[in-house]
């Protein structure tokens, strides 16, 4: 399979890279529970669970006999360790906000875990189906501030249906069937190995699919029709919880001014962006919550160049005539956009053209993924604006995924904006009863819209090309790799 960039990390507690998370969740590790096709929790490492009458605590009975790939047993201590690490501010995990609903996680014995929540819960939080368990015996001696740079990130030891074999930096990751994966958890995979090849050019991915060198690859939406025409290939367009956004550095001018942030957002023609850049395989983003999720709100995305001009004028960025550059006290409004790039960079160029029409000069700067992440996660921000993707999760979509709340790793943290009001609305949403949850999460989305640290561009749909000889493939909201352990490859198409 192809990946457009090198996998960010083998450690599931520190990565936001979508394919890395997919491989961790469905191949390399196991989660406490997993989701069925109706997105309801079903047994996985936890074979059964029992709620207390108060609904504030739940006790899990774990499968006995699962081993880490180095032969060490997986126990309840690993579960408690994982949840504690995810909450640790020194680690700054992107999942910190999701596990913040837990008051404590206790290993009662090797096969029993008790989770106590801060408030009564109507159901298990989906983070339990999305956050893989990590090995305590390999990571408990490593200072959490050093986890991202630790060798475990590039040579991970898991306990899932596939085990890590090797990595060639910037080129390839290899995983092999775990022949000892227990039958009760699904049994050994059908395919003997997975090779993840780093291929960042759209044409090269398509050529690899046609030649048979690749069995599955995300393809450029503009090339989807070519996949459909090839008799050896199938086009799959599963729903996807992934959004593309502009994240503004609110810690320095001009983006410390909310009027400038809103003006740039209002200047972007999202309908044209979806049509021209991704061939219609996305939904123009009217807000933070993607369509199809319980708390999504309908509405056309904003395009209002008159209001954009008015806001820029009010912020002091004026121009003497139509088509001229905007200036303030003799300084031109020039902005640098950081991007990982890839393909034809159609999104970046369309945004560049839209802003040029408002008198804003946008310069594109393409960066390698690890350098990009190091730059945007730095405590002191030295950039203007970044184009980035937000990988969401099933229950709350991208609103939840954005929040790192004063920690490293989330898209909101890229912007440097953390306010007491935003944090309080998030806390209220996480603790809301099911009846009040929709209104609470919409209040969070409304506050994001009011402060505009992030301009939502579009919510994506998956565009995957795969060989017809690859069988057993299911792709849905749980991810493109949800059935990877059941994949098989025929020798002939």
From TrEMBL:
GO terms for biological process: peptide transport. One of its GO terms (cellular component) is outer membrane-bounded periplasmic space. Keywords: Signal, Transport. SUPFAM superfamilies: Periplasmic binding protein-like II. InterPro entries: Peptide/Ni-bd, SBP_5, SBP_5_dom. GO terms for molecular function: peptide transmembrane transporter activity. Residues 41-394 form the Solute-binding protein family domain. PANTHER family: OLIGOPEPTIDE-BINDING PROTEIN APPA (PTHR30290:SF9), PERIPLASMIC BINDING COMPONENT OF ABC TRANSPORTER (PTHR30290). Belongs to the bacterial solute-binding protein 5 family. This is Peptide ABC transporter substrate-binding protein. It comes from Gemmatimonas groenlandica.
